[in-house]
Amino acid sequence: MSVATAPPRAARPLAGTRVHALAPWWPLVALTLLAAGLRFGTLDLQSFWYDEAFTPVRVLHPSLWATLRSVVHTENTPPLWYMLAWADARVFGTGEIALRWPSALVGTLTVPVAWASGRELTGRRATAVATAALVAVNPLIVWYSQEARAYGLFVFTSALAMLCFLRARAHPSPRRLAAFAATGALALLSHYFAVFLLAPMVLMLLLDLRPGRGGRPPPGHRATIVAVAALAAVGLALVPLIAAQAGHGTQWIGRWALSSRLATIPQYYLTGYMGSALGHGIELLVALPIVAGVVFGLWRVLDAREERAAAVVLAIAAGGILIPLALALLGADYLAPRNLVAAMVPVSALIAVVVVARRAGRTGVAFATLIALAFGAISLDVDLSPRLQRGDWRGLARSLAAPAPTAAYAGAPPPGGGARAITTVELGSLPLQYYLPGLREVPRGDVVTVSEIDETGYSPLRPSAGRSPAPGFRLVARIDVHGLVAYRFVSPVARTVSQAVLARAVITLAHAEVLVIGNRTFVARQKPLALRK
């Protein structure tokens, strides 16, 4: 062979030099670290809101049995997360970081699960990177990875079940099918809406049982039947608990127009839980690269494997969203947009499969990068903008814990040892009780003797806000903590006020559901506290 026709030799490094090649999995490590930073870095930035405060105030008890009883009688979620929260609280207490770090951990672990699912779908690293990146920075998924509720666990266990399903369907061995059954059971024990994601997975596995040529059953048919039966058994075992819980705390769903909830679902995915404050312009800017990337990917035409992968994750996402919608239209309306958060993982996988399709080339990668950057920018903006955060009940409680600015008191307890009444609505009741230990509810029909009345709430405010709630009380301060408002009224002597009068003093334009009363002085909770004895 002549030199002219000899194949070119691979370039060799110069003597004495080293070649540092990055491992093929370095993007996974980088994305997982990014996810951990977004979740753990600001874990205590925001205060507890009503649902989060409900857990330490009403659900968690020193006894696990008492805690589980509370889950039955006050919650509408399966028990797995509360069992983990109980064990966590026994060790670390009930502070914000203590109760939120498990959600941050599973939220971080969802990223490598999304990576593996993307790789399983198309066999390409580009799909794995895109899926993991979208899950790592999506503002809605980040939000629920920082919340002391079951949603982060729901997302993780559902994503893990989807990964095990993809692997079991590709190679239906008993071990892989058992892994799918186990992870599916964990998803069901995390959130009832997991059944809508599992339903299309189970249906696809059952359709794969159709006899092949010669009428022979396909491989793994017995293991498939056992796995499906095991999942069905777990679901049936939860039915008595569902009946006992009877939809506690879900009445607000029916009062929210279904059309508005449907519009909120894409808004949540695009701009996060509080993204409505950003306006429709930002929402459209985030949607633009997604729509353009999907259209370009479809226009370039997916290959056969990508088409099958897109169909699979589309079926899973559709099951997680459309089945609850159909039930809502039939009268079983539990379609709260946040209950669909786990469906956003297959939605992200669907976007990744189409946008970075093999034939989309670098243009598809550019679109995926734009989508991830837009998601990441909003997630960072949440950390910087109080208007995108949970209501700052912690900050409001600290303001209320300070003595009222009046010379009549001069920082000392008021004459007669009067107590303080705080009026609020439902969403403020438990956060205030959490951050101001010692508060209790005032039953209807009762009267209280107080020397200070604090009216708390948020916009829209009643026209009467700022007026004296009862004779003898005068306004001494108006407090505004990132949109949470408090009016403080004091009296030089303790006065008897009825619950009905206090109820009329709620400043938020909503039904007064909760009134709390406590001693004159408070110490706002700032550090994690052990469980109440």
Provide an overview of this structure:
With 533 residues, the chain is an alpha+beta fold. 56% of the residues lie in helices and 9% in strands. A hairpin with a 2-residue loop joins strand 4 (474-481) and strand 5. Helix 15 packs antiparallel against helix 16 (344-355). It is elongated. The termini are far apart.
Topology, pairings included?
Blueprint: H1 26-40, H2 50-59, H3 64-74, H4 80-92, H5 96-122, H6 125-137, H7 139-144, H8 151-170, H9 174-190, H10 194-207, H11 221-245, H12 251-255, H13 258-271, H14 280-300, H15 304-329, H16 344-355, H17 361-384, H18 393-401, E1 419-424, H19 426-435, E2 440-441, E3 447-458, E4 474-481, E5 484-498, H20 499-504, E6 514-518
Parallel strand pairs: 1-3
Antiparallel strand pairs: 1-6, 2-6, 3-5, 4-5
Helix pairs in contact: 1-5, 1-6, 2-19, 3-4, 5-6, 5-8, 5-16, 6-16, 6-17, 8-9, 8-10, 9-11, 10-11, 10-15, 14-17, 15-16, 18-19
Give the number of helices.
20
How confident is the prediction overall: mean pLDDT? 90
Q: Could you tell me the radius of gyration in angstroms?
A: 27 Å
**Span between termini:** 88 Å
Strand order of the largest sheet: 2-6-1-3-5-4
Helix and strand string, N-terminal first? HHHHHHHHHHHHHHHHHHEHEEEEHE
Enumerate the spans where pLDDT stays under 50 for 5 or more consecutive residues: 1-11, 407-412, 526-533
The largest sheet, given as strand count, sense and whether it forms a barrel, is: 6 strands, mixed
| Helicity level | 55-70%
Strand content: 5-15%
Number of strands: 6
Features:
2 domains, disordered N terminus, disordered C terminus, 6-stranded mixed β-sheet, elongated, 20 helices, alpha+beta, 533 residues, single chain
